[in-house]
Each structure stands twice: as structure tokens, then as C-alpha cells.
Amino acid sequence: MRKNETIEKFGGTERRLTRxxxxxxxxxxxxxxxxxxxxxxxxAQDAGTPAADAETWGQYKDKGIQINFLSEDxxxxxxxxxxxxxxxxxxxxxxxxxxxxxxxxxxxxxLDFASQAGDIDVIYADPMQIMAPLYGNFTDLRTFIDDPxxxxxxxxxxxxxxxxxxxxxxxxxxEKLLAIPYDAPTMLLAYRTDIFENATYKDLFQxxxxxxxTPGPNITWEQxxxxxxxxxxxxxxxxxxxxxxxxxxxxxxxxxxxxxxxxVMLAEGGNYFDNPDYATWGxxxxxxxxxxxxxxLAAAKLYDSILKQAAPGSLSWDWNGLAxxxxxxxxxxxxxxxxxxxxFEDENLSTVAGHVKWALLPKGPNGTKNLWGGTGLAVNSYGxxxxxxxxWLFINWATSPETQKKLLLEGSTPTRTSVxxxxxxxxxxxxxxxxxxxxxxxxxxxWKPENIGLAQGKIVTWVQVDEAIFxxxxxxxxxxxxxEQAMTDAVSxxxxxxxxxxxxx
Length: 505
Fold this sequence. Notes:
Layout: E1 5-8, E2 13-16, H1 19-24, H2 41-47, H3 54-57, E3 66-72, H4 75-80, H5 84-91, E4 94-100, H6 102-115, E5 122-125, H7 127-134, H8 142-145, H9 162-169, E6 180-183, E7 187-192, H10 193-196, H11 199-209, H12 221-236, H13 255-268, H14 294-307, H15 319-327, E8 333-337, H16 341-344, E9 356-359, E10 363-364, E11 367-368, E12 370-371, E13 375-379, H17 385-398, H18 401-407, H19 417-421, H20 423-430, H21 440-446, E14 452-453, H22 462-477, H23 483-497
Parallel strand pairs: 3-4, 3-5, 12-14
Antiparallel strand pairs: 1-2, 5-13, 6-13, 7-8, 7-9, 10-11
């Protein structure tokens, strides 16, 4: 079987992985010296070794237990396919893995919960589209963590990056853990070094505009737009010989548009709701929509002006389309999910391999904000007790330091800080071992509290709210609505969705 294919066992059909998954698999290692706890590398390795507790790990051997794991087609699960046999040998539990698009995951989980079938044992619980609206259907994982008849959670919960744990693991109740951090895509700025480090172009821009144009948090979003406009002009007059657009964006009328806009909005100081829990711990009462604020309106106007300088295809691209366009050499810089770094460096897929760097996104009055999109693994509460325990064994193994260390060489971003302190991982970093070596230290920088972008809502109605946001933004970008109209209409629609203000208020 080729590396970019798997058998979709759950459901009995063969499914080729999407292009997104195939392109995102590859090595992934990073440094987290600034955020990792003071844990020795050897201690981290020993604590994450299942062999140290063979009796509890093997308690279901020879019992013929099978569990089903349903996941979005995402790098950790693509990498997991190559290693799940190790878990099966350790525990005697067979794991049937299904990878599919997120919308399909949502539908299958909803049907399982509605019928209380309990057929999907381990769930890739997207915080916004699955956990938030369906949180009452998941098992509290502390039940297993506190059970002395089950293997201990290596290094405990404190070993997980704090924001990944909050964002992936909780919904409203801060004592009830619903998922363990597993996937952690983060938006950064990818840019072409053959454009931005070209001495002629760089000096000419400096002379004309008076500042260093190097992409990253040193420039503002207004300057980002100006840089894109300058590149477009120099391509048009022949100064820049290559046919390249100043920037590109994932502005299709889809979830990707909400994500893309969120980076600018958060940097400008705006948000979708004022309730601070709506994008972190989660809430059932987000309150009124905040898109009518001066900051949100300023962000809408700025974003609209940026997209006027973007490659025309931007209005039809989601994250996949943008990545393909950037790889084809048609874009100078673009905000993109960091997991595409391996694609950009694959000479079989990318014409810009060897000429790409990543940085934090441009800044606004509220600093640089880099949208986080992580997800955890959860247990279906409708499964039998035995299958729930087996599901937890898999989650414990799949997110252990030992397993995360293996998977990071195949495209999966670790969510445990101890992995980044492992002596061998630090050597990989020093040796610049793989394409993602260069990007993941920036990811860790993006996860710092002052830089992380938290906008996607952990509220029951987020799917409808998300659609309202990207629908009005799309109308703004196509010129059928002004920024003022788009924000006003979005507020009206979202408040109706959330029955705001409450009756009698």
C-alpha cells in the first residue's frame, strides 16, 4: 500500500486519503524551551513508556475487543496508521481507523449520538463543530485518569500545553475533561525568500517606503497590504520579472474565510463575542455578537482592502486551494496553517521548495494573533464500559510522550511540552533534520498567551454563527455589501441565532 493511502476499516470501504492529508504528512519537530516545564529528557521518556506497566496495558489481551476511531483526515491520524499495530500488540485491542472530511465526521458522530449506538468509540472531537454542540455525550476522562486499574497518564495533564488542553479538552465545566489534546494546527505567515530576500527588491522597497518589508510581526497588517500592492505594481511594470501576486488568502465562502479574517480581527482588537470564555473554556451564554464594535469594523475595512491586493483566486480558495497556489509559485506571501510546511518543501509538489520561510502574522493594535485550530480525542459515553476503557487505553497511548515523539517525524505536531525537551528531539532541531524543524519553533511562539489567536467559538450554535460570519464577509469581498453593512447584518443574524437579547431584557 502506498504511503498516501489507507484502508477505511470502519464502514468496510477503501478510501484514499485526501490531498490535504497526503501533502501534510512529513517530518515535524520543534523547540519549546520557553514553555516546556523543567522535566529531564530521560524522565520524560521513561514516564511515557507503556512497557513499564505491561499488566494494566495488557488487561484486555485475548478478549477480542475491537474499537472504532473516527477522525478528520489530519496529519496525526495519517501518521498513526503506521504505528497502531504497536498498540494492538501491546494491548490485544484491535483499532479500526476511519479518516474522512470534518463535515462527514460531524454527521457520523451526530447520528451515533442521536441513536445512542456507541459504535464510534474514539472521536476526533473538533471543539467547535462537535464538542460544543454535543458535549453532553462524552465521557469524563478523569474517570479513567483516576482509575488505579488503568495505566497512569504519563507526566499528568500538566505536561500538555495549557491552551491546547483548555481549547481541546473542556466545554463549560472546568472539572470535566472531555478530550486529550491530539492535533494542533496554527496559522502563520509563509513567504518566499527568493522574493523578500532578493537584495534588489528589498533595497528598492526600503528606498520607496522607508521600512524593512520582511514579513512577520514587525510589520502591521496595513503595511502587509502595502507590501502586497507594491509587489503587484512592480510585477505589472516589469521590475519584478516573475508573475507573482503580492499575497493570497483562503477567502472562499466557507469556514476558511472566517479563519482568515479572524487573524486580522483579533490583531485589531475585535472579537465575535465579548464573553472571554466563548473561545477557550466554552459557554452556553456568549451574549450579543461583538462584530458591531469599532475594532471589528476597522478590521473588516482593512481585510477588504487586503483582499483587493490578493491573487484573484483567493475568493475561491480554502486552505487547500491556497496551499496549492502558493506551492505553484504564484504567491509571494500568505497566511496558512503551519502543517503545509512539508508540502511547500516537497520538490515533487512545490516549485518554491527551498525558498520558503514562516513567521508570526502581522500585528495590529492588539499585537500579532495567530489562529489556533486544535482538536482532542474523546470517548463516546454510549459505548459499553469495557469498550470505553479500551478507548481510553488507545487515547492514553496515542497521546503519550513516546508516541508523540514517533509521530512528530511523520507530520504530527506534539501537544506535550516534555516531547520538546527530549534530548534526541533537541538534537534533531540542532541538526535541522526536516522541513518542519524551521516552522514549529514559530508555532510554539504563536502559542504564547500574548500571540495565540482564539476566535473560533465553543458555543452550541457555532456552526450557524460561523456560516453567518463567512456569508456576510463573502458578500463584502464581492462588493454586494459595504464593510459596515456586512458587520451590521452579521450582528443581526448572529443575535437571532442566539436569541439575543433574551426575552424580557
